[in-house]
Each structure stands twice: as C-alpha cells, then as structure tokens.
Amino acid sequence: QWSPVIIKQLLICNFRSSICQALVLEIGETVQILEKSEGNSSQTFYGNGIFPVSYVHLKKSTVTNRGLCETVVPLEDPIITETTSTLQEWGVLWKQLYVKHKVDLFHKLRHVMNELIDLRRQLIQGHLAQDQTREIKRHITVRLDWGNEHLGLDLVPRKEFEMVDPDQISVSELYKMHVSSRHCGQQSTNQGDSIRQRHGDGCRVPVSHHLFINLKSFTYNSISEDADVFFSLYDTREAKQISEKFMVKLNKNGGPKNPEKVDRLCALFTDLSSKDLKRDLYIVAHVIRTGRMLLNDSKKGPPHVQYRRPYGCAVLAMSDVFHTITDLKEEKDFVLKVYTCNNENEWCQIHENIIRKSNTKYSAPSTNYGLIISLQLLRGDLEQIRRENQAVFNRALALTRKLGFPDVILPGDTRNDLYLTLERGEFERGGKSVQKNIEVTLYVLYADGDTLKDCISLGCGEPNISEYHSFVLYHNNSPRWSEMVKLSIPIDRFRGSHLRFEFRHCSTKDKGEKKLFGFAFTPLMREDGTTLSDESHELYVYKCDENATFSNQGLYLSLPCCKEDFNSCPNLPANLPFQRSPKETFWVSTILCSTKLTQNVDLLALLNWKAHPDRVLDILGRLRQISGEEIVKFLRDVLDTLFCLLDENTDKYGPLVFQSLVFIINLLRDSRFYHFRPVMDSYIQNHFAGALAYKELIRCLKWYMDRSAEVVRQDHIQEAMRALEHLFKFIVQSRILYSRATCGMEEEQFRASIQELFQSIRFVLSLDSRSSENLVFTQATLLNSFPDIFDELLQMFTVQEVAEYVRGTLGSMPSTVDIGQSMDVVKLQSIARTVESRLFFFPESRSILLPVVLHHIHLHLRQQRELLICSGILGSIFAIIKTSSMESSVQEEVEMMVESLLDVLLQTLLSIMSKSHSVETSRGQRCPQCTAEITGEYVSCLLSLLQQMTEIHFHHLLNNFHSKEELKEFLLKIFCVFRNLMKLTIFPRDWSVMRLLTSHIIVVTTQFLSPALHKNFSEADFDFKVWNSFFSLTVLYINQPSLQLEALGPAKRKKVLDKHGDMRVMMACELFSMWQKLGDNKPHFIPGMMGPFLGVTLVPQIEVRNIMIPIFHDMMDWEQRKNGNFKQVEAELMDKLDSMVSDGKGDDNHRELFSLFLLEKIEQETWRETGISFVTSVTRLVERLLDYRDCMKGDEMENKKIGGSVNLMNFYKSEVNKEDMYIRYIHKLCDLHLQAEDFTEAAFTLLLYWELLQWEDRPLRDFLHYPCQSEWQRKENLSRKILHYFNKGKCWEYGISLCRELAFQYETLYDYQSLSWIRKMEAAYYDNIIEQQRIEPEFFRMGFYGRKFPFFLRNKEFVCRGYDYERLEDFQQRMLGEFPQAIAMQHPNQPDDTILQSDAQYLQIYAVTPVSDISDVPQLERVPERIKSFYRINNVSRFHYDRPFHKGPKDRENEFRSLWIERTTLILSRPLPGISRWAEVERREVVEVSPLENAIYVVDNKTQELRTLISQYQHRQHHGNINPLSMCLNGVIDAAVNGGIARYQEAFFDKDYISSHPEDTERITHLKDLMQEQVHILGVGLAVHEKLVHPEMRPLHKKLVDQFHMMRAGLHHGVPGVDRFVPAGCTGVNSPRGILSSHSHMSPESVRLIHRHSPLNLQGSIRHSSSSLSSHTSSEAGNLVIMTDGLMGEHPEEALHMQRCGVFQIVSVLQPSPSSSSLSSIRSNSSQIINSAPSSARGSPSLPDKAKHNREVMILLPSHRERANNSMYYNMAENGQVNTTGNCNSDPPPALPVRSLRKSPLHPIPGSPTSPQSALGGSNSTLSGSASSGVSSLSESNFGGQYPDPGPIRNDALEPLPSHLWSPPDEYLASPYLHIHYGGPEIDSMDPVRPFHYRSPVGLAALLLDRHLNGHELDDFPSVPRVWKPT
C-alpha cells in the first residue's frame, strides 16, 4: 500500500540495483520522497524510482509553492546549505584542476575543502557556544570566498555570514556588501569599531595582549637547596620592572615544592598594550635559594637556620621571540641560561649586567644549567581569552598584572594594591670587625597594633604571608636589595595602618642568632587623607635590641618616620623611647594602584568641599590638573559633588561647574577611559538627582554659543560643543526629574529655552567662518556633535518637533559656495549621521528632513564636490526607503527623490565616466573622484532609485518635462548612462548577482521609457538621435556577456532563469516593437543599424533570433522601395558578418534560421528573385566564414587556415565582388604564408593585389598597414615586396618578369638610379638560376570525402605541392595530423555516394606527376637540366597518375602482353605554385595506354638517360669520377642477362602477337629501332668507360663487356643489326662467373640479401625514374643484393679484388615483370628521400599479389679505407674550373653517333598512385633493371629498424662551370659526332628548415649516388659511411 508523503532525504550510501524501477543514487545527493510503502520485510520509497529506506537519512525541510514547481527548503542553518552546495560544485572543478596540471591550486583547494567539511561537521553537531558558532561561520565564509575567487566562481554577497536576498535590500546596500564580502573576516572583527566611528567616535579601543609563561623544568647541579624563582617583565630603556612577579617555589631537586603543582607552574602576564610590545622588554628570572649562608662552607651557620640568599639570574629578550609566537596558537619553548653574580654588592644590577653583556660581573656555573619555559602570546579581552583557552585557565593559572593601571580601565575593575620595593640601606658596623649580614623583616599593622594577616605577596602563584623576610647579602653594611613585594590591604583598614621594618644581623656562628638592632616605620596614609606618594622614601632608622617591645606602637608612631615628617613635628619631647641612629638610613619606594584611594590632594579637597567652602572656586579651577585616572576612579563622587555645588549656589558656581562637567565629559572621550562612558550613562539614568540643573546647563550652553561670534580663542567653546551629547543627556534627565517632581510645571519655559538654544545653534552655524579659522573649528565641532542629541530630544518632544528643530538647523548651514572645503565635508558628515540616526527612520520625520537633505546633496552633485560622502548619504536613504517600502509615505518620498536627484545623478555619472577615461591630470596621478569606487557608488544609487520607481513615478516624471527638448535631453542622458554601464567594467566579472540585478532594472526602465519615446518622437516629430540611442542601448544590452546564459552551468542557468527569466528575449521584444512603431522613419536606420541588429541575431538564443531576423526583411523591403534595390543592405550585411563571425559569433543554426525566415517572407515579394539571390549569397558567405573561423582557431594547422582563407577570399572576389574585403583577405593569407615560410605562395598572393593597382598617380587613402600614398607608389612598394618573396622562395623566373615591368616604369620616368638597381637584381636572379640548386617538390592528390569536413573541403579533391624533401608517407602523416578524425582510404578508386554523404571524414592521398605545358620551355639540348627542370614543375595545372591493370585474361607466360595503364589526368582550377600550396581539381580525364606503347616509352626514356650521361663524360663533366657511368651501364647490361629487354622481345616480337595485332606493326618497328639504338648507346658507353676506368676497376669493366656480349647475343635473334654495336676493345672477353652468373637461377619471388653492412640510402641522380610497383609488392619481395667486404660466390678472389678496389656493386637483376614494365615514371627529386614503406603503413593502394616481382641491385663504389689513395676524381679549382687527376686515359672518349641523337621528351609517363616515388630521376628503366627499379621495391620492413638516422646534411654547393665549357672545342666540332654540352653539375641544396627524413637503407644509398652524380662530395653527408671522397 503506497501512501503519499513529502519529505526530504539525504543519501548516506551509494545505491545500485539491477531492478529497472530502481534509482541510481550517489552519496550526498538529496531526494524528495513522494510516496512510501510499509512492508513486513523492508520499507521502500517511491519517487522516479524506488530504493530502500536504509540508504537515506531524514532531513527536516519545508515545501513551498506546492505543485509541479514546488521547492523543498531544508530547515537548517543557511550557511550549512551553502557549504554543502559549494563543496559539490567545487568537487567537479577540483578534478579538472588536476587534469589541467594546476597542481598547486589543486592541493590548496583540497586542504580548504577538508577544512570546510570539518567546520561544517562542527556546525551541524550544534554543541558550540554562540561566540564559537559565530567564529566557525566566519572561518567558513572566508574559505568559501577564497575558493570561489580562485576558481573563478561568483562572489557571494553576505550579511552576518549569510547570503543576502537581493530583493530584500537596496542596490546600494548590495553593492557595499559585494565590496566588503571579500573581507568578511575583517568586517566582523572591526564591526564594533565601525559602529562607533559611525556614531562620531574616532577613538579606537586599544587591544590588550597577554603573555602566557609556563616553567617546564629547572636543571641545576650545584644548589641542592630549596629555591624561589621570580619571573617579571623588565624594560631596559626605562630601567624598571613593569609587571608583578610570578613566583615558583622549587625543592632541592628542581621540582615544585608543592607536589600538586606539577605541570601547573604557569602564569599569564596581563594587560600588555601594543606600546608595551614595542618596548625593549626582557623576561627576567631571579633565583633566590633558601639554606646556608655560603654554599661552599658548611661551617657558616648551623644547618637548622635558613637564610634567603641570592643565587643567579636569567634573561630572555622578548624581541627575539615575539615574531615567532605572535601568530602561533601553540606554545613555543625557550631556554634561559642562569648566571651567578661575581660580587653580591652588585646583585641588584645582575640582570642589567647580563643584558649589557658585562661578562666580568657574572659567570655561568654550568653549561647545562638553566630554565626551560614555554611562551604564548594571546590577544583580546581577558574574558574572551578565558572562554577560548579554558584548558590554560584550568591549570591553576597565576594572573600577573601590570604595575599601575592598564591602558583600558574597566568600571568594575576594583584594585587596591600597594607595591613596596626595598631599595637600599646604610648601616653602621657597630663595633664589629666585619660587616653585618642584614635581614629586613616587614610587618603590616593596624591602628590598634594588630598585625594584618596574609597581606604580603612575594609574587603571584604562591599564597600571601603575614611577615616578609628579605634575602641576606653577606657582610654588607650598605645592602641594595631592590626586591618588590605587593601589599593587599583592605580599604577600610588603610587609614591608620602602618608598615614596620625590623633590621637583624644574621650571625654565622654556631648558634646562628638573628639579632635585632634597629627598625623603621611609615604610615600608609597622611593626615590629609592622601596615601603614600609614588616615590622613593628615606626612612629614619631607630635603634633597638631584642629586648625592645613593640606592644605599644604608639610609642614610636609619635616619632617622625622620615625627614618630611620630622619637619612637620618641630616640638619633639627630649626623652624619646627610641633613639634615631643619625648615620643609618633606609630607603623604600611605593607604587599605589587603587581604584578607591587617591594620592591627589585636590581631588580630596573637591570631594570634601564642605570642609573648606571658601576654597571651592579654587578647587574647581584646579580640577583640570587632576589625573584622569583619579577622576574616573571617583567619577560618581565627583559628579555628585559638582551637581551638589550647582544646587548650593547656581549663580556663583554655575559657570565653573559647567566647565568642570565639560572637562569630565571630554575626558571620557579618551580611549583609555572609553569604557567609563556607560558608567556616565548609568549615573545619568540611575543616580543623577539634579532636577534644577537643566536651567543652568541650558543657560551656560546658550551663553557659550552666543559668545562664539565675539571671542578670539574658542577652545572652551569647542570643548563645550564636543560635550554636547552628554550635556543634553543631563539637561533632558534633569527636566524629566523636575517634571516628575512638579507634575510638569514650567513646560512652556523649558520649550522656549530649548527653542532659544536651537536659535543660538543656528546662529553659530550661519556665521561666515571663512575669515576665522577658530570659528571654523567651532562650527565643525558643533556639527559633529549635533546628531548625537536627537535621541535625547526624542524623550521630550515628538518626532515632528525634533525633525523641525533639525531641519531648521540643517537649513541654517550656508550653501556649498559660501564655505570652505573642510566645512563642506563636516556638513555632509553631519547630514550623513542625521540620515543614519533613529530620527530618520520615522516616516513622519523623514518627510520633514528629506527635502533639506536632498537640497544639500543636489547642490554638491551640481558642483561635483565631495561625491563619495554624498553617495554614502544616498545609499543610507535608499536602504531606509527599501526597508520601509510597505509604508504609504514611501511613494511620496520616492517622487521627491526622482524630482530632485534623477537628473543630477545622471549628469554626475556621465561626468564621472568621462573623467575615468580622460587623460590623467598628472603623471602617475588620477583625479581621486575618477575611481571605480565612486563610479560604483553612484551607479548603485541610480539603480536603487530606478528600482524604487513604479509606473506612476515614471508617468509623473515623463509628464513633468516642460518641453520635448528637456525630455529628449533626459532620454539621451539615461540611455547614454545605460550604455556606459554595459560598455565599461563597472562591476567585476564575478559580481554576478549585481550584474544581473543591474540588467533587470535597465530592461524594466527601458520598458517604461519606450512609450514616451514613441509618443513624442515619432512621425512628424521624429528625432533620429534619440531613436538611435535607444536602438544602440538595446543592442548593447542583448550582447552583454553577463546575459549569455549558454556559457553558464546548468544549475546556475536554471537559477538565473527562475529569478529573472531570459532578459535578452524581453529586450529583443521591446526592440522589435519599437522598430515596428517607426513606420516611415525606418529608412533612417538603413543600413546604419544593419550591423548592430545582425549582432543581436548572432546571439545564440533561438527566441531572440526568431524575433530579430524578420527585421532584415523589413530593411530589404524599405531599401527596395527607396532605391529600387538593396545593395546598401547587402554590402553592410556582408561587411558586418565578416567581422562578427570572425569575433566568434554565429553558428550553423543562425545560418539556417536566417535563410529559412527570409526566404519564407521573400516568397510574397515582387523582388523575389533578387531577394533569394541575396539570401543565398549571405548564407554561402556565412558557411565560408564559419569554416574560416573554425580553421583559424589557435590549435589548427597552417594548411587548414590557408585553405579557409583562400576559400573566403575567392568568394569575395567571384561571388559578391567586395574588393576591400578581398584585399583584406589577400593580406591575411599572405601573413599565413609568411608564418609557414611559404614565400613563393606569399608572393603570388600579393600579386593579386598588385594586379588590381594601376601605374597611375591617383591618391589612395591609408588602408591596412599602407599609408596615404599614390597608386604608383603603392604598386612600386608592392612590387619590391613581391620580388623579395620570390627571391626567398627561389622562384627567380617569376621575379624576372616583374623586374622587367619595374624597369620599364623606371625607364619611362628616367629614374636611372632605380633602373640600375632593378637591372642588377634581374642579373642576380639569372645568376641564381644558373648557380643555385633548387629542390624539386613532390605533388600529391588529396580527396576530402564526407560531411564532417569544412565546407571548402567537403567532397572535393585537391593537388598539393609538398614541402622540400617531403615524401608521400610524410605528407600522409601530416594530413592525418591536421585531420585527426579522418579515415585514410586504402584504394585510389573514386568514392561512392555512401562515403560522400556520410557523417565522417575520409581522406584519400596519393602522389601525382606534373604535366607541363612545354610550348615555352627551352627545348635545346644544350640548355642545362636545372633550367628545364624549373619549367617541368612550375606553372603546372595538369597532373596525372597511372594505374596498371590487366585487360582481358592475364597472360601467364608474359604478363607484359596484357598489362595496360589507366592514366588519369587532373586539371586544376589554377596552376601550381600559386596563392596556396593546394589547388582544387576542376575536372579529370582518363585514357588507357596499351602494353606496347608503354614499352616504347620505357625503352625510349632509358636511352635518353644513357645518352645524357655519356655525353657528360664525353665533355669531361665528371672527370675522375666514373662511378655514375659504371652504375648506369651495369644497371642496363647486367639486367639484360636475366631478361631485360628480352622480355619485351618475347612479348611483342612474337609471331603470334604480330599476326594478332596487325595495327601495331608500326609501333613494333619503332620498338625494334629503339632497342637497336639502346644497344648502340651501350656500346659507345662501354667505350667511354674503357677510356676512363681506373686500373683497379678493370675487372668490373671486363664483366660489363662480357655481359654486353650476352645481351647483344640475346637480341641478335629477334632484333637484326645488333652486331654493329660492338664497342672497340671489347672482343674476346669471357663471361664472368660466380655470383653474377648466379642471378639467372633466382626465382622471381626470391629475396637476396648477401650482406648488410652500413645503411645506404639510395637516391639516384636522374629524374623521372620510377617503377609502378606498389609498396605492397616490394615489401613482400625484397630483392636488394648488396655486395660489401663480405661478398660470397664461387670466386671469392674476385670479390676480394673488388673489395680492395674499394668497390661496392649493386646489380639490378632485370626481370621484366608486368609491374616493372608497365609503370611509367613518376617524377622524383634527386635529393629527396625514398618512400618505400609498405602500403599498409601509409594507406596507399596496392596491387594484387600476382604483380610481384623481384629486383636485385649492386653498387660499385670505392671503399672507405681506400679513398685516400684513389685519385680518379675531379677537384674544383679556385676559379671554378674542373681539374682532372688520376690515371685515367687522357684520350677523349668516343662521341655518340649523330644519327643516334634524339630529343628526349621532358615529360615521361609518370608512375601510378600505387607505386612509391623513385629515388632515381629520369625515366623508367628500359630493361626494367635500373637502380631506380630496385630502390623503389625495397621494403622498409627489411631494413628500417636496423640503422640509426644519419645526422644533418650540409648545404655546401659547388660553383658552376666556367662559361668556356659551354662552347665545344674545335676538335669536337670536327668530330663526326655532335656533342652535347651542359653547365655545371647539379647540386641539391638542403632545406635548413625542414628535417631530413630517412626512410630506408636504400634511400641513403640513392642519395649518395645522386649527390655523387651531381658533383657533391661525400663530406656533405657526415654520418654516411665514406665510400668515396675526391682528392
């Protein structure tokens, strides 16, 4: 059975359950219970689920607003609730701190959270006292505010440690709470002080300090007697003791003599002031032992006689320990070393000697001898300390007081202590041979002779004694004791009591007698009633002996006790009972500290005035000389005496009594006697009996007032003014007593006298004080005291009457202009205290006082004076009105304030705000009124006033303006102030409550003001300025950061919405409503308000967008009506969209809503088509802007940023034709290129702007970073900048055309200086083209598929120009890094619609080859390769890639017959390089290449490569270095042994193929011719090789010749005419054996690795050499054979010979597999790195397994250790010419036949996307056996992990060949062959910016080869094994 119940429960344990209806609950969560069910086994609860009752704890709560939106409020302390919610919020943020690595704050916050949990636990337990609870709350709030501040959370305004409700207090109060909440601890501590200061007391009550001391141990080893230790505080500067002594009695073992005092030897030195702590204080400890006379002589005195003897002293400087114990709550230990006195005569000064470190006067008996004490400094009132430290006070704590009164004398503090110090004595020797051992015994005796029991105290901590024995100084007749005792004598026994001092000589003989030899005495009180004065007294010593009797003290009391006493007793009898010893004297000093006894004769005379009535006037006159302490001790008696005198004779004593009363009242203003003010008040209320005194007091007071205009010295008048409060208290109380006694008689006379008194007060205040400084002080004093009398007046008069008195007084003050600034301040302070007084809280009085208060404030605000005080007064008024808001009179008061203050408040705020942003008045100083404090104060005052205003107030306000101009001025002011509130940071960011309340008041005020705007300034009276101000305000309001709720957490957002709603929607509705009311005046705001309104629509709030977007349709419609188009709207909208979206505003939702709303409304319009076009353009712009913004985020990659910029720039140019935005984005794009160091792209980007400019003198305005200049100047400057970037990008060919353009302009202007400069630059560019090496980049095709890509990339493909040395794999990794969510596609096929429309990112990347437009490329063979290579890779807009496939069934005997190439050509929208490294693919073309055409292409390219290389050796361009030629010949000839071109012969020269393909007859013939030509070229190459080969390399040459014969023999059968190509000198060479001949036995799938020795990264020198093999193929069929010094074979001696020659051989085993023959070359940079990773590693597509082939390569190079002796290499002479050294044949090598020369095409067929880029340049291997084939098929998996990465590579470049080498010698011209000449060797320069990546061992070898072929030394590669080095 479920029964309904609503209670609140708190989870005490996590709950998880498998039941579907069960809730999942976490510990600490709160659940609200709706129903419960009682069962036999368990009890469960039902809410949104069920859970067991045992998991929750019941929490008391109340339910408000029952229903769907009910709220459950827990019945607990609000601060507990706040702590709980705050800790939950912090818990989430605390973990985030750890994630963000803010470790320091993480640990601090954890500590604070633990403290809060502990404090909250103490508060919940509820076992604390009220003061403790308050302190706990203070600690909690301090920690809550600290954590909120450091976590960036909102500041919580508090009052008395609890959160305040902003609705219950005024805005001014809320502002002050925000200001003070950060210092809530200080606020609570100083609360009492601030209250007192507010009520006119500038005094600050001193804070007492108390020093806790605890004696822990006393270690000694030499006394072995009982000891007394006396602790005291000593001031070294004044050389006096300032405290009583704390006494500790110890036994001979060093422990307490009283066993009960173990661990209780502690004292508290009380009442130390702050001034005392600054003194040079020491803790002094004197040790007095009790025992024998001498420690080291047991014969001196019998053991049963005990003497008090001085032993030692210890000191501790308090300055050393105060800083360590001030802030500690626990005690701190200190050690005091005890020193003994070397001479007992100086015992009284031992502490001084130790402090002064007079080492000769004291000594230390032992090093480990001393006192261990602990100290603790406590602060505050003694009662408070007693409550807070109960454990300390429970340890029998001895309270040790100061000598004299403390700084603060409490009324109930009764003391009567007489401190007596035995100073010194002078005694006769008395016939003794040695001096006496004198002991003094002190007795206190009554008048009747009885000894006063237990009144002598040696020190606190021990009980009092009845007689005191001083310590004994050994053999000293002039002893100096300086020992103090305290005498506690009852007051009633003080008169008549006396002190008697008995002097005894302590014998050290066997009997140990103490013989009396004299005495002295002194009475405690003199005859006149005064006590013993605080000074030193010299007492007479009278002789006596042991037989003398003191039973009759009258015998000696009649004797003079001292010299003063002797002088007053001239007639002494001759036969005295005791004879004075004239040579013996005794000195004592006394200090009286008594609240009942006085030493002042004048005070006693005043109190006993009746005994001498004739001296009263004199006594009253001397009252000022009496000490304040004495007066306050007898305050009641003195006041009674004064008023008794007043009653006795008013006329005679009246003025003096008045003066005395004023003096006493002002005495209580002293901070020392502040606590006696309640005593005075209590006296007035309970003891004062002067019923007639009021008449004289009023008369005297009025007399003083009236005299103020005449008297020059006005000190006495000012004193009377200061005492005004208590004088009025006496007056009122006296009148009450009189009225009570007489039943109200003389009431009219009293009222008249008060009226006259107030007239005198007004008279004083109305005087012109500018000429009299004294009068200024009098008026100021009167104004300060005036508010204090209100409460007294209210006892006698009605509220209205008192208010009238006050109003008249305040009204009598002169205006601001007539008084000085100091009086101005005092006047306002008086008004402020009037407003804060109880009088102002009564509505009846407030209605009277408010006008005069507002009048004065109005005057000050008009003149901008004393703004801070005025704001304080206004804040108090608003606070009172807010609390009284339920009263009917408040509406009238608000009306009054609106009329008086609203306008001047607005004016003041505008002035303050303008000053705060103006230039500083002087360096480092700002006007004090321009501070944030004043601004905040006045903003809060204005908001308070607006908050109090109702609709009626606004109605009256708006109707009371006399003209529309006044209304307009008011509206402009208030709108301006509101705008400034939102633009300026008036309130800090974390003042969320204040900012939200401000926004609420502004929107409500705006709703009240907008009807007046519409009513008065519409249609014919339209005023643009007011309307524009209104619209600007609304736009700023909606865009306020504090109102953007989307940035808030869910809890805070809900809280704001519940309290205020979404104020943006409220203001947007108001804005839309007012826009509609504009009517025909709307065009005034078109297009001016387009941008602001657009900013409002970009606010991420759906309702705001729904309200605001239709306005744009309205604007378009009005613009269409006015101009016939809406070009202005379009232009403005696009301009603003760009800046706003770039600033982070806007999203896709805005774009969709904008399009949807406007298209829907445009459908009905006549201008529908243009409207739709406009909306579409805007939508497309927003798409691009959003993409651009996403790309420009800080963590995005450069490519994405550049792509977004290009996309947006092109949009502005092509679609909307906005030139200024287009130029702006040109420069943004240029900056991005410069950041990425893409200088070529930066130059092309600036060229876009350059093309827009003309060579004219038209002036241009300043724009971006360009100054005002002519168009010609700007274009010239731009040209120079572009030239600079082209130069840095090494694109000098592009710069040359620009140089010519500039040269033409300079020549036209006859500017020969500039012309010379530009011509030199052009020449330098030509030099750079010839001399400097340029890296040829790779090109990659990218496809971006899927809807998750940015708009400018989505489902598009691009070609990218790679960075220097960047290979496919590097590029893929970079792209995947830029798009981490992208999935790499593993095939090159075009994606289907599934991928295109998917919500994902697919990235497709592979390499492509540029196809250059060769129409303008230099085609002459003599043109250097580096010149032609530039045109092959620049200004290219066509790229292609190949894909091999089998058409029809695969030919298993020879795959070449069926292997076709699918060639895809990509046509770009713009050529590369250009404004970006990327260019979009505009269209694609696909063609198929037959197997035969591919074979022709491959063979032809290889032939051209051979011809080029051989011709270079013919012209001695590779003098001495024969290795490149050796490798190239070896790669072709050796491959032929294992197949080579024979595979093509088998495929295409077969009779079956020829018969079945009659259409290919011509192509077959062509292929035969090419093969024959290649054999001829090989023959010439071998001839050249024979001429140049080194003798040690002859075995290699012999092997090449043998293999050439085998190749020729193989071709002889299928290709007739091969025999003619036999090189001279190559006949009869036997075929090599061993390892080389073993290649034919390799299977196609074999992998041959003979030796791995050093990581060689093979990189060829020849461009366009590549294999179409995929990485997949190469990874499975690694086929590199590297022969090093570990060669193996049938003839190891041959290998050994090659090793000695320093030769490595890489042999490309040419087996014409389908893949190798079918793939066209992909252009490769000679200096770049081979990308040979498997396809699986980089996501590139792969071929089927059937396309596998193997390839083996060997390199022949000189060994490392032989390189020094090898002289077959060329050197570069200093002049750049080539010098040849070595044993090479000096005869010129045979030239190539003329008929064999062919022009090689510059653009061979590139490789497919499935193949890795070849390391060797040039074409595919004709015989599928070039070094490049082997390199490209090498798998990284075989070698990649074995070798370390080489180090950096130098950028050394060789100088070019001299010009004479470009012309062939005459003997060459006479030759039957045509020689081909080239410039210097190609030298690759390394990019110093990007790292050099190594991908495989083979890549390094290829790099070495390429470097060597291009003339680089091996020294360029420091980390590469040295294979050769030119001499």
TrEMBL record:
Keyword Cytoplasm in annotation: yes
Biased composition, class Low complexity, residue ranges: 1715-1732, 1814-1837
Sequence ranges assigned to domain DOCKER in this UniProt record: 1213-1620
Compartments reported by the entry: Cytoplasm
A Pfam short name: DHR-2_Lobe_A
Residues spanning the signal sequence: 1-22
Superkingdom: Eukaryota
PROSITE patterns: C2_DOCK, DOCKER
Keywords for the protein's UniProt record, in alphabetical order: Cytoplasm, Guanine-nucleotide releasing factor, Phosphoprotein, Signal
CDD domains to which the protein is assigned, alphabetical: C2_Dock-B
GO cellular component, one term: cytoplasm
One GO BP: small GTPase-mediated signal transduction
Ranges for domain C2 DOCK-type: 415-593
Family the entry assigns: Belongs to the DOCK family.
Name of the protein this chain belongs to: Dedicator of cytokinesis 3
Organism: Anabas testudineus (Climbing perch)
Gene: DOCK3
